[in-house]
Amino acid sequence: MSVFHKSFSFVGASESKEPLRIPELVKEELLQAVLILPFAFSCIRWPISSRVSATDATPKAAGGAYTYTSPCHAESLYQLGEHRGEHTRLDWVTLDNEPTETTMKKAQPVLQEFLMSHKWSPSRSYTFRKSAHVNLQEMRALKSELKEEAIRDPQGRRLVNLVDSRVVLGAYAKGRSSSLHLNQIQRSCIPFSVGGRKHVTNVWVDTHNNPADHPSRMVKIPDPSPAPLWLRDRFKDLLPELVPSGLRHLCGKKDGAADLGTTYKKEAKQNFHKCDVCTAKVFPSPFVKNGKKKDRAHDEHVKDPQVSNYSRSFKEVFSGCCLLTRTFRNSRRWRILPSVEAYPKGKYSAAGDILHDEFFKSLCLAAKDTRKGKQHWHFGLPCSSFSIININMNGGTRTRIDPAGNGKLKREVVGNQLLKRTLILIRILGKVGHTWTLENPGTSYVFRMPGVVRLLKRKSVCSVKFDQCMYKLHIDGDPENTYTKKYTRIIGNLDVSSLHKQCDHTHAHREALGSTKTATGWKNRARLAGAYPPELCRAIEQVALMAHL
């Protein structure tokens, strides 16, 4: 709407009912509106950025700040932002001439307290060449934020920004302003919004709760304010890499508590002894019973007396090289159940094939078992017959309309049978109160299969998408700081939203196609990329642990 700069003035000034000649400026604006009409649409599929910004200005200077929050919090902020706007005037600066009634809603004190408990960083702090009205400078500060985001990230996104100016809030959400000076600045935002594929939604906050107020006055942003109790409890037990950078100060140590992990490592280096069977170094366990420390399990020949007391168990189905199982075992917080893999070390074993009827019956009985506490099962379903590569390069028959295929390819039939039995196990686990997760590539046809679609419609099932390059998925033989992106999706009956990480384009990428030379010879890159990186394994363990606390 800001395209119509002089048009509204022309229509408002013409009181005569006689035909009037349209001025050249108005004709140009009408032509501009026709030219940008093909871009006048909104994409509701654009993700909401977890980067939250704030802008502020004075008559002589402006500043910006940013932080990162969790995706679910970013979505809530976007919904609470101003989407409609209202008529505003440029001279609304003081409460004397500003109307008290407004349809726009300011963020509640609880929400502002939540925002100020984040760690904010300055994004810019600069002075203007000329002093101008504060509301004009506020709009210029917002334009600077939009411009920077359009240049920094070419992907289409919906952004959340904090402002304390009612004039800017109402004018930007409405799309135009009756003030020609303000509308002119707003018009100059169109190229960055359309070309940069960005949509900004502003949240109205108080001036003293606007983090950008400090950079606009060339002052350092203060430390985060005390976080609400519910926010501290949510993040205090998570690993730092699983927490958004804006809330990372809430995880780790508790108030007044020592770092138990560091203390234990120092004691372990001094108190290790040799295993009686294999003479390897065995470090003391943090578990204490009757005043004596018990030794941890050492491979398979040393039994940990505390394992039988664990209240949670983990089982990996389609385990591959068992990296995830090792991570759960090394955390020493889980009882590890035997993993399931039909081709351990490349050789077929019926004892790990869920298509073997007797073995599948035993799995169903194990899934129903509740005697030893809650269980978490992870299914890394083989994706060879469900992937896009199977369709584009290997003559696959799966389509969006018929994701199961036409039944003529054996690998697709086997894939369908594996998925069918996986869903049976998932249904059993859900009925008895156990948790589960299912992983496959983000573009996999698994998530179009009718059984999985019905599963995703349940309120108890959560879904998350992420790029494994952000978890440092590195294939042997690739250059340093070069990772495989591997767009991945995980669903489960627990909160997996903290796994969301989208590539920040700070590293090089290399596709998982072809072969690569490793220390043990030439290997298939796709097979090597199938192993989870250690950071992702630790993140999945933390997600499962939070659901079992």
Oligomerization category of the chains in this entry? single chain
Please give the count of helices: 18
Quickly name the level 1 CATH class of the largest domain. Alpha Beta
Strand content: 15-25%
Separation, N- and C-terminal Cα atoms: 52 Å
Spatial ordering of strands, largest sheet: 11-10-12-13-16-14
Structural class: alpha/beta
- According to CATH, the fold-level topology of the largest domain is Rossmann fold
Low-confidence stretches: 253-309
CATH architectural name of the largest domain = 3-Layer(aba) Sandwich
Count the E strands.
19
Structural Rg = 29 Å
Could you tell me the mean pLDDT? Answer: 82
Biggest sheet layout = 6 strands, mixed
**Rough shape?**
elongated
The percent of residues in helical segments reads 25-40%
Number of domains: 4
Describe what you observe in this structure.
- With 549 residues, this protein is α/β, with parallel strands linked by helices.
- It folds into 4 domains: 1-41, no CATH class; 45-250, Ribonuclease H-like superfamily/Ribonuclease H (Nucleotidyltransferase, domain 5), CATH 3.30.420; 259-309, no CATH class; 312-548, Rossmann fold, CATH 3.40.50.
- It has 18 helices and 19 strands.
- It has helices at residues 7-13, 24-36, 71-80, 109-116, 134-152, 166-174, 180-187, 190-195, 213-216, 229-235, 260-271, 323-331, 357-368, 388-392, 410-432, 450-456, 525-529, 534-548, and strands at residues 48-57, 61-68, 121-127, 157-163, 198-204, 273-274, 281-282, 284-289, 292-295, 312-317, 335-336, 374-379, 435-441, 462-467, 482-483, 487-492, 508-509, 515-518, 521-524.
- The protein has a 6-stranded mixed sheet, with helices on both faces. Strands 3-2-1-4-5 form a 5-stranded mixed sheet, sandwiched between helices.
- A hairpin with a 6-residue loop joins strand 6 and strand 7.
- The longest helix is centred in the last third of the chain and has 23 residues, at 410-432.
